[in-house]
Prior knowledge:
Strand content: 25-35%
Structural class: alpha+beta
Radius of gyration: 17 Å
Amino acid sequence: MKTPLFPLNSVLCPSGRIPLQIFEPRYLDMLTECMKADRGFVVVLIKEGEEVGGECDFYNIGTYVNLIDFQKLENGLLGITVEGKTKVLVTSYFKGLDGLYCGDIEHLMHEEYMVLPDECQELATLLEQLVRHPVVKALNMDIDYLDGRHVGWRLTELLPFDKKEKQFLLALTDPMERLKQIDILLSLMES
Length: 191
């Protein structure tokens, strides 16, 4: 069975959450099918093109997500919150007549738990500060500040890096390397 793909201008990592507003018929139909079949879809970062409407090109490494909440918003649109489960590789895809991208995916190897090293404690402190923001707080994420994976994944999502940099960080498979790269990117931002 082909997996639905949801191209966004945002990166989502495993165990992260993102709120979305759904109004396009292709995505409303996709959500209905996903709920009926009790399965998720894949969030991929757009390289070129737009989130709404026409064509877009996207990266082949994304995150398989599950729907965890939905409600009708004041603006009349459907609001959903999805949570990242695993990183995946999109091996092939096509665009259906309804405009929905679907593809074959391969679940990538699960990153092992990594105790956050002492030299990375400042990154955990930075993350704690970012999570205090009301929008982030409202996502109600369960963050383990002692787990190097969680700290790296959440900083990848929340820091104002360029989307290519965020994709690079998502694609890394070593939590320590991700933390080092985040530290380098932060240093570049300060200079």
